[in-house]
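Sample intake — Chitobiosyldiphosphodolichol beta-mannosyltransferase
Collected from: Aramus guarauna
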Amino acid sequence: MAAGGGALALLLALVLVPLVLLLWRRRGAGGAGRVCVAVLGDLGRSPRMQYHALSLARHGHSVELLGYLQSRPHGDVLRSGKIRLVPVADLRGLRVGPKLFQYVIKVIVQAIQLLYTMLKLDQPSYVLLQNPPGLPSIAVAWVACLFWRSKLIIDWHNYGYTIMSLNHGRNHPLVQIAKWYEKLFGRLSDYNLCVTNAMKEDLWVNCNIKAVTLYDKPASYFKETPLELQHHLYMKLAKDYEPFKPRTESLSWKAERSAFTEMDEKNGCVVKTKGRPALLISSTSWTEDEDFSVLLKALEDYERFINEGVKLPPLVCVITGKGPLKEYYNGLINKMHFKHIQICTPWLEAEDYPLLLGSADLGVCLHKSSSGLDLPMKVVDMFGCCLPVCAIYFECLHELVKHNENGLIFRDSNELAEQLKMLFLEFPTLEGKLHSFRKNLRASKQLRWDESWDQTVLPLLGQTE
């Protein structure tokens, strides 16, 4: 523990070096109307921070959106004249020496790199930082705000130390240091946002941090997809992914077909094909907090149900996203030989993802919060598209998924398999639970991101627009 504390002290000392070197350049800068939105992660896979940037721009702020540029952000972000992307190089780390040494060096280099990048920006009034990852970004953002005399807002999506504990265990020295660091520097923020009331209470009770709950809400473009747009999307995906291609040849040479839809080229009329498969979708960052073997085992049971004569449709299962465990699970998927189920794992363009959610029949969520205090944004987006969800149980999931109202909650693969059987029985002719869940979601008229943000965040910024 002492070695870890010494490393952290060295980190903070090295962080301050470039600050001193840059002081003479930054005196007298003004920050009115400017906000730095920062995440030490991939901007394209940080939708909530993109939403923050768009909301700030909508209210006239100039926004510097800072992070890794690995995946393309949404087109609305790229088209905004008020948002400037500030890339940060993604450091892969050293491959020499013990792992602890490699980690400490990486954190130190990241801190220097991040501070140097931030201090080259024009002085903002606020820095809005995503946590996690918080090491070293919270300390760096705090130092930058001290120098700029700006306000630091931390948006708590989860705790970094609980995510680290998935690999190392909760008693590992690195995890304990990260926990101490997160609590210490978290208290130095001016304002705090969080994603659930459970996290709000935990921040106050265990960290003495006062936060405001800003639930994830879907952006306006998460909605049910019209049939013509569904067909266009399916035809686009069919070029690269076999499950979207038609199962049989069209009876008419004038018809353009996908696995799910058919368009009469003469009059442009689109209909759903008879005997079409059901479309199940899940999205993931392919990390340790989502065990996709649960879904794969449930699909094996689903296949068995069909072989036993249960009247279930063939199934197309689409799992979207990027992440470290994708190759591992693709290896498992390739070993599975289904007759009635097809699985594909595409990476979708930002504009295509909501269209696919709005076209699907059922969403599945396998996110199990490392802290038990955050909620899966993928479910928020699915609900925005009026897409019913089966979600795996964890502590505060009830704040989002209402069992038997807008979806179902399961605890293991057997329960998920039974839910799939019940929901898809005699699909699509039988209007059962799946239909009633969708009907409830349509009737709920849930709050969208813009309205929620204006009610919750705008007052923190002292705006009166």
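Post-analysis note: The chain has a mean pLDDT of 87.
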